[in-house]
Amino acid sequence: MKHIxxxxxxxxxxxxxxxxxxxxxxxSCSKKSSVVKTTIPNGVPEGNAMAANLxxxxxxxxxxxxxxxxxxxxxxxxxxxxxxxxYKAATEGNYGACSLMQNYNVPAKAWCMSWVKKQx
Length: 120
Ligand code: SF4
Description:
The protein is an alpha+beta fold. Helix content is 27%, strand content 8%. A three-stranded antiparallel sheet has the order 1-2-3, with no helix packed on it.
């Protein structure tokens, strides 16, 4: 049987421990991510200047209340793309085209600063 020194034993143990804790950290990071990537056909591209300027968010519920303020008699937390004047629902799927966002599709529960209460 091969003799392993105490130093070799502990350095091996620490390497295993480091790998295991690193994996656990990576897994917890991926689980805690609150931003859900929404993949919809012809969605607003990452880095779109209009979207950035209007603080567009694919999940309205993640927008701070200091941004998503009460407007036109609608509470901030009641504003979503699907009740915005610029939204036209797709025939299927939970998204629609936004005429303000160059007709890119946006999720029904997204939001941006240009939200306007849908009429009628
Ligand atoms: S303009 Fe309206 S539909 Fe378009 S992204 Fe903003 S809130 Fe959504």
